[in-house]
Amino acid sequence: MSQAVVDVPPKGGFSFDLCRRNEMLSGKGIQPPSFRKTGTTIVGLIFKDGVILGADTRATEGPIVCDKNCEKIHYMAPNIYCCGAGTAADTEAVTDMVSSQLQLHCYHTGRVSRVVTALTLLKSHLFSYQGYVSAALVLGGVDVTGPHLHTIYPHGSTDTLPFATMGSGSLAAMAVFESKYREGLTREEGIELVCEAICSGIFNDLGSGSNVDVCVITKGHKEYLRNYQMPNPRTYVSSKGYTFAKGLTEVLTTKITPLKEKVEVIDASDAMEE
Amino acid sequence: MSIFEYNGSALIAMVGKNCFAIASDRRLGVQLQTIATDFQRIYKIHDKLYIGLSGLATDAQTLYQRLFFRHKLYQLREERDMKPETFANLVSAILYEKRFGPYFCQPVIAGLGDDDKPFICTMDSIGAKELAKDFVVAGTASESLYGACESMYKPDMVCSIFSCTYIYKHKVLDIFGPFTKPLHPSNPTEKRKKFMASYICKPTKCRLDLTNY
């Protein structure tokens, strides 16, 4: 049998076979494409019973908002969630990958995952790519050792903090936290503070916008409040909308393909008797 | 000049009432010179799943061939068609695999999932998925298309065809031949309009009724 080059699914990891062609194209003066970023405001804080994470929901592609309601709070484990800022594909891929590794680890050890495990898996992956995987993360969760909140930078460095902000709106959100944070916040006070910080990012930073997502993690219980606040409702100039007259576009040809095919079922008993 | 503007493209997919529509222009150019006015950008993966690929035409064709191959393998192994959500994950993984040397392609995926629920999705060139409930756009005319859709989209339209009229008016790089395929659970219909082609699906009749859009 001849050895044909077949496009079988590879073992995993990145493939660099188009790099040489892309280098050649950029040498000819063609700019590489811009990737979708989640120029963002993501925050986390530790309150009396656990961790609260918050994020805005805007995804930008250059100067255009391409997704007005994207999800930036990613699931890692039942007791651990991670907010991601930076290149959208990188944050999604890295959090999905570490989430599966955590699940395998969980099965292997028979124990609930710890936040520091997720932290180490993320930082070692990001460090090994020297910052080229552009994902800035706020990781929070509650495990047997208590509530934990960490920030992870694209180059792999981490911080452990009682309250943290990342993304383009981080300065606006940090201003709110620095003035109003105190230890021993209750759940309601914590959620209100997180919302205020995200709103400050939404209104003052161009890369953040739309709605506020909140995730509250406590011992043995988590609550993902998608679109907890929607401070930017859609307003319409006229409620009727735009109507299109029939025949506005000339139709050149039409082809209709029926999807459901008629299948005749021959009764098996009849066939045998013949 | 950006690599996406080399060939030029405009793609849009929209969700209507129990149906979806996917539309593209048909111009193939080399920067400002038009080479073809019947270039296909929307490909059928199976009866209820279509993928449109904008960006560099050669990468779009290569990517389509790889995806079709993977889908055929899936059909052989699982003896059924891939769901649109699964297919979107597959496309995202294939694009992210080339994170540091990407395909210069932005896919738009449209399909009917479980219970014939319409599903649309787009990605950037490294696989960051954007699932939308109303419309998705891609290509060099994406900014204009965003504007049009934002102002004119209404939920639950019977045939989301106006997407074609839209693409028709676009920038020089992608003005020819919108080609749209609205798809409804029972009947996909292909319609070629002036400079355009489209597939429309209707529940009971074959008559094409455009009044409700």
Automatic annotation (TrEMBL), chain A:
Subcellular compartments: Cytoplasm; Nucleus
Keyword annotations from UniProtKB, A to Z: Cytoplasm, Hydrolase, Nucleus, Protease, Proteasome, Threonine protease
Top-rank taxon, per record: Eukaryota
GO biological process: proteasome-mediated ubiquitin-dependent protein catabolic process
Active site: 40
UniProt catalytic activity: Cleavage of peptide bonds with very broad specificity
GO molecular function annotation: endopeptidase activity; threonine-type endopeptidase activity
Keyword Amino-acid biosynthesis: no
A cellular-component GO term for this protein: cytosol
Family recorded in the similarity comment: Belongs to the peptidase T1B family.
Task of the protein: Component of the proteasome, a multicatalytic proteinase complex which is characterized by its ability to cleave peptides with Arg, Phe, Tyr, Leu, and Glu adjacent to the leaving group at neutral or slightly basic pH. The proteasome has an ATP-dependent proteolytic activity.
SUBUNIT field: Component of the proteasome complex.
Protein name from the UniProt record: Proteasome subunit beta
Organism of provenance: Nelumbo nucifera (Sacred lotus)
UniProtKB/TrEMBL annotation, chain B:
PANTHER family tied to this protein: METALLOPROTEASE TLDD, PROTEASOME SUBUNIT BETA TYPE-3
Family of the protein in this entry: Belongs to the peptidase T1B family.
Quaternary organization: Component of the proteasome complex.
Species assigned in the record: Nelumbo nucifera (Sacred lotus)
Listed Pfam families: Proteasome
One GO CC term, this protein: proteasome core complex, beta-subunit complex
Gene3D superfamilies per the UniProt record, alphabetical: Glutamine Phosphoribosylpyrophosphate, subunit 1, domain 1
Keyword annotations from UniProtKB, A to Z: Cytoplasm, Nucleus, Proteasome
Gene Ontology biological-process entries: proteasome-mediated ubiquitin-dependent protein catabolic process
Cellular localization per UniProt: Cytoplasm; Nucleus
Origin superkingdom: Eukaryota
Matches recorded under InterPro entries: Ntn_hydrolases_N, Proteasome_beta_3, Proteasome_bsu_CS, Proteasome_sua/b, Proteasome_suB-type
Protein name: Proteasome subunit beta
Function per UniProt: Component of the proteasome, a multicatalytic proteinase complex which is characterized by its ability to cleave peptides with Arg, Phe, Tyr, Leu, and Glu adjacent to the leaving group at neutral or slightly basic pH. The proteasome has an ATP-dependent proteolytic activity. Non-catalytic component of the proteasome, a multicatalytic proteinase complex which is characterized by its ability to cleave peptides with Arg, Phe, Tyr, Leu, and Glu adjacent to the leaving group at neutral or slightly basic pH. The proteasome has an ATP-dependent proteolytic activity.
Phylogenetic classification of the source organism: Eukaryota, Viridiplantae, Streptophyta, Embryophyta, Tracheophyta
